[in-house]
Amino acid sequence: MSMSLQEISDRLEIEDLLARYCYAVDDRDWAAYRRVFTPDATIDDTVTGGVRGGVEDHIVYLQKALARIAISQHAISTILIEVDGDTARARVHCSCPMVVDLGGGKTHVFFQGLWYRNGLVRTAGGWRISELLEEGYWTHNLPEGFSFQ
């Protein structure tokens, strides 16, 4: 089965969009974060203790949740994309080491993993995420008593 140039282009553009999402979160670049979503996007990260809401709601939550995180590195892989005209679905694995600032110059590294299920739409400005659902959340070496709340 071969792909058309449009199918190849769509997949590359979607993969780039998903990478830009990761960098926006890790860099705490909220303007870039806004640009990867449609204005009416729904984001649901309740599986990790987060919120379900729109982009602005989620930015407020992330600013608080990541306040003690010195470094995060969202690494996505095993990307499954299904394009249907101007819409698409993607399932993406994410492994993310995080460095927690414990204070007093001490840090603690833990790992988390999950899958992103994304709904995507083609817009005049390119592909955008219209829905993001996190599922299958796991952690390793989480500091005792740590919460993103």
Task: Report on the architecture of this protein.
With 149 residues, this protein is an alpha+beta fold. 27% of the residues lie in helices and 50% in strands. It has 3 helices and 7 strands. Strands 1, 2, 3, 4, 5, 6 and 7 form a 7-stranded mixed sheet that branches. β4 and β5 form a beta hairpin. It is elongated and about 55 Å long. The N and C termini lie far apart (47 Å).
Describe the structure in brief.
The chain is of the alpha+beta class. The protein contains 3 helices and 7 strands.
- Number of strand segments: 7
> How confident overall, as mean pLDDT?
96
The proportion of strand residues reads over 45%
Tell me the helix content: 25-40%
Helix/strand-derived category reads alpha+beta
**C-alpha Rg (nearest Å):** 16 Å
Distance between the termini: 47 Å
Shape designation: elongated
Secondary-structure element string: HHEEHEEEEE
Enumerate how many helices there are, as a single number.
Answer: 3
Largest sheet: 7 strands, mixed
Uncertain parts: none
Keywords:
149 residues; alpha+beta; 3 helices
Secondary structure topology:
Blueprint lengths: L4 H23 L2 H6 L1 E8 L7 E2 L1 H11 L3 E4 L2 E10 L2 E17 L2 E18 L2 E15 L9
Parallel strand pairs: 1-7
Antiparallel strand pairs: 1-2, 3-5, 4-5, 5-6, 6-7
